[in-house]
Amino acid sequence: MHLMLSRHGIWYYRKSYSLASGKRKEIRKSLGTRSKREAKILAAKLFSLSHSAEIGQIATNIITQDKIPSLEICISNYLRENSHLWQERHKFRIEGILKQLPKLHLERADVSKLKNKWLRTKSIATVNKCLGYCSMFYKWLQAEYDGIENLFGKVKLKGHVEKSRKAYTKDELVKFYNLAIQLREKGMESHFWFLMIGRYTGMRANEVCQLKPSDVDLDLNVFYVRGEVLKTKTSNRVIPIHPRLLELGLCKFLDTRSERLMEHWKASKRSFAAMPTKWYSNFRNRNGLPDYHSLRHTVATEMKSSGVPAQFSAAILGHINGNITFDRYGHSIAIEKLSEAINCLD
To answer: Which uninterrupted H or E stretch holds 18?
Structure first.
């Protein structure tokens, strides 16, 4: 029946034939469906079309894939066919990169120009990611159409990869606390709690910004991390509330919230933390502090220095799933260990 199933679960029409030189050539055509029954019907139509003398020219255009759509249509088809592989924000990022391609059929000078453009504003590691996204797109094009060349396959940059983030030093933490108190004195409660929750939980910015009042259980003294947009499946977790947050008035702050704890900032489907992280980026540059994500490294470093077992610190940071259990009635040994781990933070 000339059918082939791709690794992404999409059915293809596949036809092989011999050239005059004696070599064999294979043509593939995406049927755009994951249903085998539907794929059989579409493949049968293509097969009969290719053997019809009355519309032979039309069949040739379809089977040999001579006519390639525009770059915009190709990008749209690629994103639609592979959307199940990515989260929404990841898809949005890839789309933004592919739309920077000047044309479909590129020359080496075009790739070099694009690479140099990215290097002016991005790190080597990020540029390599962009090149990788383009390479995957052109590999997909090669499977769809003839006459496509992938010039992104062997252009990975060599050099020093961006240095990993460092934890806050003791002096930086003192400055961090003092600046947070100043924000509170100015009436900037959301900004204050955005900093404090990140400091005493190790949550990612996007996780903090998705917290709802119902995600804070004051009876069991825990945060439930269960947002709509999480980085990984292991991000769903339970984190004990640090006593310092209760001392600072977390209960009172919750009484002023209705939908989200960080409802001061407008959220988007792709990222709940876009606005607060942009604010903190400007804030920390003015005050000489590390970035927000470095708070996670600070939490990890302090727990490691205090001798917290790796499986417990990983459970708090959302790096594992399933090994740490939580008993709803508070009798689980695991949650007690997690509380001990959180309480080691100064």
So the answer is: strand 11-18
The pLDDT-based confidence of 168 (bands split at 50, 70, 90) is very high
Share of the chain above pLDDT 90, in %: 50
pLDDT in tens, 190-244: 999 999 999 999 999 999 999 999 999 999 999 999 888 787 777 889 999 999 9
Is the per-residue pLDDT at 261 higher than 70? Answer: yes
323's CB contacts (< 8 A; 6+ apart) are 311, 315
pTM for the model: 0.60
Give the tokens for residue 175.
Answer: 């400055």
238 Cβ partners below 8 Å, 6+ apart? 222, 223, 224, 225, 326, 335, 338
pLDDT at 165: 67
Angle, helix 71-82 to helix 88-98, in steps of 10 degrees: 160
Task: Give the Cα separation of 237 and 315 in Å (integer).
Answer: 7
Residue-range domain boundaries for the chain: 3-51, 71-144, 170-343
The answer to whether 236 and 230 are in contact (CB under 8 A) is: yes
For the chain, what is the largest distance between any 2 Cα atoms, rounded to a whole number of angstroms? Answer: 83
Separation of alpha carbons 281 and 268, rounded Å: 19
Architecture of domain 170-343: Orthogonal Bundle (1.10)
Amino acid at 295: L
CB of 14 closer than 8 Å to CB of 27: yes
Residue 12 contacts residue 31 (beta carbons within 8 Å): yes
**Of 7-11, 48-52, 329-333, minimum mean pLDDT range:** 329-333
| Cα dihedral 192, 196, 199, 202 in deg (nearest 10) | -110
> Which whole-number Å values give the CA distances from 107 to 104, 194, 197, 201, 242, in the listed order?
10, 47, 50, 49, 57
Residue 19 CA, chain-centre distance (Å), reads 45
Single out the residue of 264, 275, 248 nearest to residue 188, CA to CA.
Answer: 264
